[in-house]
Amino acid sequence: MSKHVAIVTGGGQGIGLGIARALAEAGFQVAPADIDPDRARSAAEDLKSRGAEAIPLTLDVTDVASWSRAVAEVVDRFGRLDVLVNNAGISPRGTAESTDEALWDRTMAINLKGPWLGIKTAMPWLRQTRGAIINIGSTRATRPRRGMVAYGASKAGLLGLTRQVAVDGLDDGVTCTMVAPGWVDTPGERIIQAAHGRPEFPEGTRNLITIEEVGAAVVYLVSPPGRRVNGDIVYVDSGLHASDNAETVHLPPQDARGYT
Can you say whether the dihedral through the CA atoms of 176, 180, 184, 187 is positive or negative? Predict the structure, then answer.
């Protein structure tokens, strides 16, 4: 029997790479996909060095032709597709008034249209394997924060897409679930925090989520018992969704300065 196969978008670094590694360690053949071909190749080599079978994919998630090429390459190589992880995303800041149309459109294209295109393209193959879709969302899908209008709206939309696809996939055995990580130390997050006056991030921050923990959540959700979770959001955020206050969850009381 062939090993199961997974595509992980945004798999070249950060959370995506953590997910790709976790799936590889769980026995999956993995295709890390990234818009940057060098990052995709580096991720694939990283997985191979750990004993996994992997191929890099250059993928622009906003482009349907790019998706068609990527899925075809995976199926041609491995003969099947069992898991699609829609992880690629951006996290811009801005209110409804300060966000310009170009940034809004770009955020929706990457964070919401991209997963839809991936699901649309991969579904015929996932239907054959009764596969799983994992969308990487955010606590902000259900707990808005000031100054994140495009990001919050895109992740709320992604949760709606997750639930809709879960219902539509019931008869075919295709599940669709969202993982909502909390504050994760990634290269992208360090850039964002530095731009907003916290160049020392993550120094002094507590309850950080690791990329390994997000990966472990994905591995659980694609496991036999995890497949019973469907159409729902799984928070991996140290309780941020419950407290709705990043300061109480992530910053020491004596250093609670807020964050953007």
Answer: positive
How far apart CA 239 and CA 1 sit, in angstroms, is 40
- Cα angle value 105/180/258 (rounded, 5°): 80
* Dist CA 51 CA 55 (whole Å): 13
Instruction: Please state the domain count of the chain.
Output: 1
Residue 19, pLDDT above cutoff 60: yes
223: left (phi over 0), alpha (psi -120 to 50) or beta: beta
Q: Which of 151, 220, 235, 259 is catalytic?
A: 151
149 lies in some domain: yes
Q: What Å distances lie between residue 162 and 21, 34, 59, 180, 259, CA to CA?
A: 23, 22, 21, 12, 28
235 part of the active site: no
More confident residue, 75 or 206: 75
Q: What is the pLDDT of residues 193-239, one digit of tens each?
A: 888 778 888 887 888 899 999 999 999 999 999 999 999 999 999 88
> What's the CATH number where 98 sits?
3.40.50.720
Range of the domain at 236: 5-188+209-243
- What is the greatest pairwise CA distance in the chain? 56
Residue-wise pLDDT for 106-156, tens only, equals 999 999 999 999 999 999 999 999 999 999 999 999 998 889 999 999 999
Does residue 197 belong to any structural domain of this protein? no
Helices (H), 183-260: 187-195, 211-221, 240-243, 246-250
**Is residue 203 assigned to a domain?**
no
Q: Tokens for 231?
A: 């159409």
